[in-house]
Amino acid sequence: MTADFRTRKITHWFALTDTDDDGLITAGDLDRALSRIAFARGLAPDSDHVAELRRLHTHKWRLLVEAAGLDAALDAVTVTNVIRCLNTLHNTPDEEQLLGLIADTWFSLVDADGDGKITFAEFAVALWANGLTDLLIIEAAFARVDADGDAIISREEARAAVCDFFQGEEETGPGAYLLGPVT
Question: Of 41, 81, 97, 153, which is most buried, counting CB atoms within 10 Å of its CB?
Fold first, then answer.
């Protein structure tokens, strides 16, 4: 498999995160994406949990802008910026830090009850919030991320799936369906 699939995955993530469809991800897009999932989970916008997730999103945003080599005052990135950033960071400690933060933020957002594991129901709500409603596809996605087949996604499995999503080139990797099917 070529890097084409990796590019398609990143473009898929970008499209889900670009909530206003203007071809740019801004801090506002990240906040709206967070709010969409928080709403689906029934979290109050002013809750401590949402505030912590918002803090993580802001930190992730700053890392992304800095890692892309963009002016820190820049308030938007394109999909080309994101792909360039990830290519530049490949196999560096900065990549590990950024992907770790993305994985931790995703895990904290999806783990609705905070018990340190993601159930199928929690995973399904997160994908539903991103517009995926086909239960068979959600089940297939969950099975790919749940590497050991124990019906929960551990923090380690989530991290492996996030890293595979942003780094992997195989359509059968654990991250291939992390955010639903990639077209």
Answer: 153
